[in-house]
Amino acid sequence: MPQKMNTIDRRRFLRGSGTALALPMFGSLAARVVAGTEPKANPKRLGCFYFPDGVPMPLPEDPAYKDWAWFPHGDGSEFALTKCMEPLDPVKDDLIVLSGLSHPKSRSVHGHNNADQFLTAALTGGGDKEYENTISLDQVYAKHVGDQTRFSSLVMSTDGGTGTARGTHTISFDHHGRPIPAEHRPKQIFDQLFVNSDVDSARRLALSRSALDEMQDDAQRLRKSLSTADQRSLDEYLDSVRQAEIKVEKAKRWLGAPLPSVDGDPLNLELTTDEPREYLQTMFDLIYLAFKTDSTRVATYQIGRENGVGRSDHLARAVGFNLAHQLSHETKNPDGWKNFGTYCRFLNEEYGRFVAKLKATPEPGGTGNMLDNTLLLFGSASSAFHLSRNYPIILAGGKQMGFKLGQYFNHAGLNFQGGPWMGKGEPWQDEAKGEDLPLSNLYATMLQRLGVPTDSFADSTGIIQDI
What we know:
Blueprint: E1 19-20, H1 27-30, E2 45-50, H2 65-68, E3 73-75, E4 78-80, E5 95-99, E6 101-102, H3 137-145, E7 154-157, E8 163-164, E9 167-168, H4 186-194, E10 196-197, H5 201-223, H6 228-254, H7 276-292, E11 298-302, H8 325-329, H9 336-359, E12 374-379, E13 393-397, E14 407-410, E15 437-438, H10 439-449
């Protein structure tokens, strides 16, 4: 007799002294639907990944251009990856590489200020300009799909926390433009996703509910005595309380649901950036597991902070260099482009490994493979040295969302800025050689394909039809 997933007795998997692991999502059982019912639609996932410091941009007349330029050579479906990019060759047919896109509000801003606005397109500015951000792409999608999973989104970075204005450690921002703290410790991420300490969760949630009710009552009484400006501040506070209420109610719904069971033995959860390659692999593996178990369908990972600050700058030690950021400053030196390109190649190796792993995994309880139903954005908000134009962007996956994969969308052509920094003026201060498309056009296109009913995002002027 067919058996539905929600009829399986999972209590035997929850025994233990407050800590337990439970059932994974079994594709073989999920496929046993009652005759006459519609099969469940494939999930649609979004992953966004950011790396700092831009990419190698030698000019065409430079001998390093052939091997160490980040952008491919060619256009459309006829393009070749350089040595910097060739680790992605096994998944080339599952990629869309894009050039000539950037955020209009940031094109005349120093590149180190740009991670904050990579997923928001906001005017976060530079210098003495007032800092103000908006909601990030991932959180727009999390609002659309987050109720369907235990965690609305997974926010990660190598440096952890929120960082500072224009020195962010997170690329995720809520609907008020407030930074969402990122987690950087593999064990804490794993425990959050897969280890349940449930002894008094119900009691804590009841107390949280009671405390939130009291806050609302007190706030409404206070409002009557406040100025207009203070009332706006209070309204923001009340909105935060409402968001907390939503999280409490969601937590209550998931309280009795078993956590998925995964084999954590292959993972070294005590890693730090002192083991940079293994650390990066583990962070990607945690996102893979979160997606595979349908714990969340939205994830962000800021691989590094701009400006050479923080533990993320140590990742270059994976390929024999001391600090990552200084490589972008030293491209005028002998082998400078090769050294910078070697570091970017390392990032592409680990990203490509993650993409290939999703492709090799059949969709649990669905059709195709996991990559077919997962849209991945990988990029930076700088290209040449500190240049806030022509962002290096790669989309991967999304085949079952209608993306035309295996192509290079070369909007910039050969009309781009680049070359080594010679220690004088910087490219971001120069007049642009061409006009970039708004990156938000790509984001609007992505949201549409992910099923969000929208025609726009931030300052978009349309969607990109060619992808």
